[in-house]
Specification:
Blueprint (H helix, E strand, L loop, with lengths): L7 H16 L10 E5 L3 E7 L8 E6 L2 E9 L5 E9 L4 E11 L2 E8 L14
Antiparallel strand pairs: 1-2, 2-7, 3-4, 4-5, 6-7
Length: 126
């Protein structure tokens, strides 16, 4: 039977690093949960942004890309920023995008281009 040698130094470093992260006063990364939902007439994107004021949120569109940027101030430690890009579907209307923030939840509504419906044309007698 052979004995395996275990390096406790690795565990001690891991424990020390974890303790430093949990007790550190530096800002924690802003990585919000994002949910995208497709409805009949629009797309809805919801992002959890707790602690982010509406004036610290920027939403832009350019060439079919929606960019969401947010910044959360964390006291004297500075600010934490976040940016994420979404490719808009072909039927999304960039001119019909609205956003609102309520209790730390950002909701972006993106209108869809109405589908062309077939139309019947009546034939008149001459």
């Amino acid at each position: 039977m052979s004995l395996a040698r275990f390096d406790f130094g690795v565990m001690n470093r891991l424990h020390r690093d974890l303790e430093q992260v949990l007790s550190d006063s530096r800002p924690v990364a802003l990585i919000p949960r994002v949910e995208v939902q497709e409805l009949a007439e629009r797309y809805v994107l919801r992002a959890d942004l707790p602690g982010v004021a509406p004036q610290d949120i920027e939403i832009t569109t350019d060439q079919g890309i929606l960019t969401l940027s947010a910044k959360r101030s964390s006291g004297q430690s500075g600010a934490v920023s976040y940016q994420r890009r979404f490719t808009l579907p072909e039927d999304a209307q960039a001119e019909d995008i609205t956003a609102r923030s309520h209790h730390g939840v950002l909701e972006i509504s993106i209108g869809k281009t109405p589908k062309v419906q077939p139309r019947r044309i009546t034939v008149e007698a001459a």
